Fold this sequence. Notes:
With 233 residues, this protein is mainly alpha-helical. Helices cover 41% and strands 9% of the residues. This is Creatininase family protein.
Amino acid sequence: MRVAEMNWMQVEEQAKRDDRCVLPLGCVEQHAYLSLATDAILAEKVANDAADPLGLPVFPVLAYGMTPSFAAYPGTVSIRMSTYVALIEDMLEGFYRSGFRRIVLVNGHGGNNPVMTFCTEWMGKRTDASVKLHDWWAGPRFQAAVKAVDPAASHASWMENFPWTRLEGVAMPDEVKPPFDRPLYLASNPAKKREILGDGNFWGRYQRSDNEMLSLWQVGVEETRAVIEEGWP
């Protein structure tokens, strides 16, 4: 259930019934020909699709994240780590005050991963709380399904090209982009990174069939649902 469609009284009663809640984490950054909000769109949708049958509340996506590498691409907005950690702390405290003790962060952007170090620190203070960070696209089941379709899958490639991340009127190149020099990329500043990447696709095809993508999506939803349901301390 979407918190955006609940009032405070319903949230209070829900937390008494079940102390789990979900927060999607996204980012606004270049994704080649796809939406700049691809990570936010995917994180929010997979969280809602996974949690809905469980009747668990999903808070609105935290759309902005840490993405300094793509700062040279217009439209990319990167949050400083100190700002992001402070924001996550405030949000965790808000969930805690609302009665939630088991919190799942469904993450759609790899650059947000360092926040789990802070979450572990926070759990040291809130010892009755538990936080999971689930990189939904990097889950073992989802990645195995991706590789079974096409191992050449990466940032802004076909792997993130779903009907809900495409832009109307924007055509995808019909080609396979070759890999780039990753060590050089990692050692470069944002302007040089843009020069190396060009359009922003790391490597691989730009699009595959909707049938393939919808099947992959179902794997990602089911894997995310299992993380929400299982393995709590």
